[in-house]
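Lab channel / #folding
Pinned by the channel admin:
"Please post every new chain as: sequence first, then the structure tokens as a reply. Keep commentary short and put observations after the output so the thread stays searchable."

First post following the new format, from NK:
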Amino acid sequence: MIQKNLNDIAKMVSGKVWLPDSQTIIINGVSIDSKTTQQGNLFIPIIRNDDGHKYILHAIGNGAVASLWQSNHPNPPPKIPLIIVEDTFIALQALAKAYRTELNAIIIGITGSNGKTTTKDMMSSILSTTFKVHKTKGNLNGQYGLPLTLLETSQDAEVVVLEMGISYPGEMERLAGIAGPDVVVLTMIGESHISNFGSRENIAQAKLQITNGLPENSVLVFNGDEELLEEGVKKLHFHESVKFIRFGTANQNDYFADSISVLSDRTTFVLNDHPYSFPLLGAHHVNNALASIAVAQHLGVTSDNITKGLKELEITGMRMEKSKAKSGFTIINDAWNASPTSMRSAIETFQKLSEYNQKIVVLGDMLELGENETRFHQEIGRLLDPRCVDYVFTVGKLAEFIALEASGVFPKGHVTAFRQKEEIAKAIELIIQPNSIVLVKGSRGLKLEEVVEQLLML
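Reply from TO:
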């Protein structure tokens, strides 16, 4: 993690040390949350829903040795080591950008509408067999999370795998400027946050800003099945030494898989006559594996280590995560988020599972889909097949359109739309059978992991 004295930090953020005799104080890492501040941290008070300046004393009590202070805030505490800056949020990003230039590691940036986290986890698992790797924790992938991830990186890291997520136009340009990736991966273009961008075309343009400033001899790995990416890349200007690698399902890609099979506990596929497997359900995850293998092979990782890294994969929670309820039935927790693309992929994978006596889906609203939100939910409802799913439970106003479409083909009483998620576990308890499986998926705003927690107790 970053280790600097306050004088050096002040230079990196264009600030001024408040107490001159504190310039030599050494900080070890940074924090923007006073509750999780650790000994030696620099506290950075962020102004969002709340004003972080109110918690500086709490952060100091938890071990912070200094803090930033935004200049337009009156009455800075007189005896606490401070660095005065114009804007604490901009200072956080500036600090991360400056620190990134001191790292000798290869920086890998991953973006896309879906698959970012899984690709990050796969790639990190593979590369860790050969390099010292630092990766994005959880979903710290945005305007605050990415700077924090960089600032947590140790000086001896050899590879940094950064997940880079955006919700609004202009954000990727800022993230790319901070991260300065040497390798870029674009997973796919979907409909996530389409209400903020207006169209998939605009989403593609925004995601492609991750390539801004790609240095000589860098690598761009992207989904060759996606026309928006293919056409978008052609319109951009790169140094002639930049290498392009395409992955996807079509055989014109540089990396494409054969013999894909989704089993009860893993997914398998073949690439160039070499078999691979990973402990995650879903054929759609094979593309994430292909992108990871492409980067690994570019960096010289052996086939044996790639195989090992995929087999030992540990996925960030709530991504097709399997667990068992007390009574023995299986739960697939895919509740981290949902878009039409990820919802379709999860349902298609779920419906192909054949070893269970009873299958139940719990589907929530897909948010931030703009003017076509009703149609997107109706399409999901039409995707549900009563030959492959026994019961459909939905939660949320938009998800009622899923239930309405499904009701036309499912037996009476096998589709229920709930307004309150607390009612779902009770309904499932009444019908659950031995050797059953339940899929839970919805947008982040619904927090459907709370339903999973209730189901685990049954």
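NK: The radius of gyration is 24 Å.
TO: also worth noting, The domain at 103-311 is CATH 3.40.1190.10 (UDP-N-acetylmuramoyl-L-alanine:D-glutamate ligase).
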